[in-house]
Amino acid sequence: DSSRLAAYVAFRQLHERKQKEFLGLWREDLEASDPVAKAIHEANRKGIEAFLEDHPQFRQSIYWNHVILVSSIFGRFGQVNSDGSKAIYSICSHIRHSCKPNAAWFTLRKGFPQGKRMLHVISLDGIQRREEITVSHVEEPVLLQPRLRRSLHLVKVLGTPCPCDRCRANDEEADERIRARGGVTSYHVRASSGR
Question: Distance of CA 34 to CAs 88, 140, 165, Å?
Answer without folding.
Answer: 18, 24, 15
